Amino acid sequence: MTLSKMIPLLACCSSMCWGAWPTYHGAPDLKGVADAELGNQLELAWRFNAGGEVYSTPVSDGERIFFSAKKGRVVALDQKGIKIWERSFTRTNDAGQEMALRFEAPLVCAAGLVFAGSTKGTLFALDAKTGATMWKYETDGIIVGSANVILDGREDAKIVVMDQSEGMLHGLDVATGKMVWKSEAAERCDGAPGVGAGRIAYGSCLAALHVYSTDGKHLKDIEVGGDGQIAGGVAVEGKLAYAGLRDGALVCIDMESGEIVWSSEESEDQTFSTPAVTEHRVVYASDNGFVYAVDKKEGKTVWKFDTGGMPYSPVVAKNRVLVSADGVLYLLKLEDGTKLWSNEIGDDTTSPALVGGMVVVGADDGSVSSWRASVP
């Protein structure tokens, strides 16, 4: 793929073109928001049977929907839920047997490519239209957190992927897969890096937020203290980063000064979800079963909602919050947390994706389903 062919796609993704959801939590900043009207009720638009457990939140380039599933598969659907292509990936074990790879990390799509990272440390770049392998890169580690893309309106796009065990971020050229830079090791890193405003931010088991420039310069390590391991994705907006901690808190951190702006400490159970960041609210989920909305300026709790289960990363469509917990998809009011609608989809589901005005979720029963606003 030539760079000239990539430029229009980069411009589209950097401005979040209609329908695009390039990471598991929306744009590369991982703020988890979309400009979509969902009303008060949802109805099923379509359901696709993947024939095996769907591992992570679907993503979309605005034309196609991509997800990973059991038996080392990466699948592409059109907006009507019809399969376009499917790839299966294997490896040879020490006994000479062919074994399916496992893609636990969410996929990422940008620049006409789909990126899939395996638990064996290989990042594959696939052609979004055909599924053909364009390149692959070996981290020599483990990939469990989502990769992310650095666009910034530039032609020299990068993909960043984390080696979980070493806590080392690899910056690669999108077009070739060649390593451009590599971060310092930071012990174990499970979550996804957030990218925005010329910075990359991610957490680690060192109870710290690590900040790099998008060209790989190490800017700052910010200690959050206590049992503050950051194992979820980090949402970024300007100079601020939002992250959940192992001790249950959600923190807002100034990446320039290194100061903690505020800390929401409603939960005593770990908070490893990625928060959704809106104009006035930050919405996050904790392992105690609750979804919280806090004031964006001060971190004060505005409302909380008990899912009664294990909620995943929430997302926001205008004035509506979507969150899945123990196989149930919930639609809440952003204003006060009132439950408007819910539906049991399976024993377990992925976090929801917002694709072209639809809500798309994967489930452990092998289904990928799309939900739309219900018309009275």
TrEMBL record:
<feature type="domain" description="Bulb-type lectin">
    <location>
        <begin position="257"/>
        <end position="376"/>
    </location>
</feature>
<dbReference type="InterPro" id="IPR002372">
    <property type="entry name" value="PQQ_rpt_dom"/>
</dbReference>
<keyword id="KW-0418">Kinase</keyword>
<dbReference type="InterPro" id="IPR001480">
    <property type="entry name" value="Bulb-type_lectin_dom"/>
</dbReference>
<dbReference type="InterPro" id="IPR015943">
    <property type="entry name" value="WD40/YVTN_repeat-like_dom_sf"/>
</dbReference>
<dbReference type="Pfam" id="PF13360">
    <property type="entry name" value="PQQ_2"/>
</dbReference>
<keyword id="KW-0732">Signal</keyword>
<feature type="signal peptide">
    <location>
        <begin position="1"/>
        <end position="20"/>
    </location>
</feature>
<keyword id="KW-0808">Transferase</keyword>
<dbReference type="InterPro" id="IPR018391">
    <property type="entry name" value="PQQ_b-propeller_rpt"/>
</dbReference>
<dbReference type="InterPro" id="IPR011047">
    <property type="entry name" value="Quinoprotein_ADH-like_sf"/>
</dbReference>
<dbReference type="GO" id="GO:0016301">
    <property type="term" value="F:kinase activity"/>
</dbReference>
<protein>
    <submittedName>
        <fullName>Serine/threonine-protein kinase AfsK</fullName>
    </submittedName>
</protein>
